Amino acid sequence: MTSNTIKRTLISAAVFGVLFFLLNYFSGTHHSITSMVFKSLLSALVFGILYLVLFSIVNSPERKYKFGITIPIALLITIIVSAIFSALKVGIVVGLILGVVAGYIWEYIEKKNGSSDK
User: Fold this and answer.
1) How far apart are CA 109 and CA 111, in angstroms?
2) How far is CA 9 from CA 25, 83, 118, in A?
């Protein structure tokens, strides 16, 4: 993993955490500052982890192609299905997980067959 990716992750997570805090602070309903700071730090941490994982996954053009196809398709399908059950947040999470798993399955099958799409 390059130090450039880690630097971008830290900067993006910090900006996201600050924006999250400001949006919650100026939303009109004031909760305690400590809980808002904790939620902002937690959201920045989760965002940073997701950012780092995503950019670690798509480190080559072939992987960008594979995951660029599987993740949006899985997200679309799970959002449509979860909208029927009124659980969109669950559909988004499940779609991301299924998209990443499908991309890895695609790589595994391609590696097993020894073929490539070049």
Assistant:
1) 5
2) 24, 32, 31
- By CB atoms closer than 10 A (0-12, 13-18, 19+), residue 31 is exposed
Tens-place pLDDT, residues 90-112 = 888 898 889 989 988 998 998 88
Task: Identify which of 105, 103, 1, 102 has the alpha carbon closest to the alpha carbon of residue 49.
Answer: 1
The token duo for 48 is 């940073």
Three-class SS state of 27: coil
Helix (H, G, I), strand (E, B) or coil at 19: helix
Q: What is the mean pLDDT of the chain?
A: 85
pLDDT value at position 117? 52
